[in-house]
Design a protein that fits this description.
Elements (H helix, E strand, L loop, with lengths): L3 E3 L10 E4 L2 H10 L6 E6 L4 E9 L4 E9 L5 E8 L3 H14 L1 E7 L16 H15 L6 E5 L2 H13 L3 E5 L5 E2 L8 E5 L7 H9 L3 E4 L7 H12 L1
Parallel strand pairs: 1-3, 6-7, 6-11, 7-8, 9-11, 9-12, 10-12
Antiparallel strand pairs: 2-5, 3-4, 4-5
The structure holds S-adenosylmethionine (SAM).
């Protein structure tokens, strides 16, 4: 946790003092080892970032006087359309995407996604938010990415995706594509990433008919977990 993410309800009724009694208190006590008078990095969820001066720290509560004087880092102008990965991987990838600053995440079904993955409790709104918050705390950001769940591939690609890709460069990561993944984009992009078994030809064709360009990172086939940061760092 490189930044303590504050919620509106942490603020005491008057002034800029916050009181925290949950896992963030434990973290500040046991990992950061802070003490009274220390200045800690803080940010308001969905708002600005700044500094919190510790005025109380014990086993019951952390209280800080906070100054929120800077905007959080810019998001990447990127919509990531990700075939739903297995639940454990999903949790880690949500954190990674959040800490990398992805603006919008679409979790999509595709032919090689196991149907049981859609039943995981890790897809509950609260659990998704928990992972995204961990990513924000890691990266010193405060703005949650938007997350859309789309359990039907064809209607999503035919009806909704054309609107989402408008004004962006639509790319689909596909190991056997002839085109290399572009670098250093200066415009918004939409990037589709396949499941562990990859997209089937029908799905690639449908994405291509929606304007997507298949691009490759080379002959090494990466896990989805490795492909996500590798692709994002090439693109931006
Ligand atoms: N056998 C599958 C195939 O050939 O498509 C491998 C799928 S890979 C484990 C999962 C996803 O990560 C792929 O669908 C693709 O989106 C992305 N990926 C992995 N390695 C890649 C590479 N070298 N180039 C482009 N995308 C890659």
């Amino acid at each position: 946790m490189n930044l303590i993410l504050l919620l509106k309800e942490d603020f005491l009724p008057f002034g800029d003092r916050v009181r925290i009694t949950d896992r963030r208190l434990k973290h500040v006590l046991s990992v950061q080892g802070a003490s009274r008078g220390d200045e800690l990095a803080v940010g308001l969820l969905g708002g600005r970032i700044g500094t919190g001066t510790v005025v109380r720290l014990d086993g019951e509560a952390l209280e800080m006087d906070v100054r929120l004087e800077r905007d959080p880092p810019q998001k990447l102008p990127l919509t990531l359309v990700l075939s739903l990965p297995r639940p454990k991987v999903l949790r880690r990838i949500l954190r990674t995407m959040s800490s990398l600053g992805v603006e919008r995440i679409v979790l999509l079904n595709s032919f090689r996604v196991e149907k049981s993955y859609w039943q995981t409790p890790f897809l509950n709104e609260a659990q998704v938010k928990e992972q995204l918050v961990l990513g924000l705390e890691q990266a010193k950001d405060t703005v949650l990415p938007e997350v859309l769940l789309r359990p039907l591939f064809k209607p999503f690609v035919e009806d909704e995706l054309p609107g989402l890709v408008r004004g962006t460069l639509p790319l689909v990561a596909h190991p056997s594509a002839a085109e290399p993944c572009p670098r250093g984009l200066t415009r918004p992009a939409t990037l589709a990433i396949g499941p562990e078994g990859g997209f089937i030809p029908y799905e690639i064709d449908l994405l291509v008919s929606c304007g997507f360009l298949p691009v490759s990172l080379g002959e090494r086939i990466l896990t989805v977990e490795a492909a996500v940061p590798a692709l994002i760092s090439k693109l931006f």
